Amino acid sequence: MAINTDKNSYTIIFAIVMVLVVGTVLAGTAMALQERISANKRTEKQQNILFAMGVSDSEDPNEFVSAEKAQELFDKYVGEEGQYIITGNVAKQTTDAFAVEVKKENDKVKQDSDYQRKLPLFIGKKDGEEFYVVPMRGNGLWDAIWGYVSLDKEFKTVKGAFFDHKGETPGLGANIKEAYFRDDFIGESILDASGNYKGITVKKGNGDPKNVRKDDNAVDAMAGATITGDGVTAMVKKGIRMYQPYFETLKK
Hints:
Blueprint: H1 8-52, H2 67-77, E1 83-87, E2 90-93, H3 102-111, E3 119-126, E4 129-139, E5 144-151, E6 158-165, H4 179-182, E7 201-203, E8 218-220, H5 226-241, H6 244-251
Parallel strand pairs: 7-8
Antiparallel strand pairs: 1-2, 1-3, 3-4, 4-5, 5-6
């Protein structure tokens, strides 16, 4: 008996079958690629951490280490011994701090104010210097922004920074990725004159366009990107502040 393809029931059944088939194929593909996706995310994080430490495998310091060399150089400058999970003022060494995602930890705190937030920390060594690399995440004008800031062993001065975004406006907020913006953070103090934590403000009309002053806790804002700049300010201040209880124990 021939199937009447003009009936509404046929259209509905066909649509349901197609949704199930396509959904199954997509789910299967996602599962098959999950390991590769996780590996790529880990590599990207390693590249960002190394960049914040000033590690490059080329003559251009603004170039990321290649994906092929990311693991090798990460093992050299950070390794398993340089990975920690911070809870309050307590640090626990781990073989994979990458398992802790800042966004998910932030979401858990929003859902449960009593939740003890876990923070990933990467401690690297390069040319005899220690770098404390802090991952952070925040909100820009349109979507998420994130970054990695490295501090010196005194937990006072920024040694390097990397920022990225999901959907900021090209030529405006998207410029948080550009060298001229992130390099202004290098050498800036996160403490005020009294030694108290203050963070760094992306400040419009800073009066220091060449970023000569490094003790004013501020960098010059990007033109036409006030909200994104405010997002970076909030992200950096909150991101580093969460580690302060632990950093204070290391100063004693």
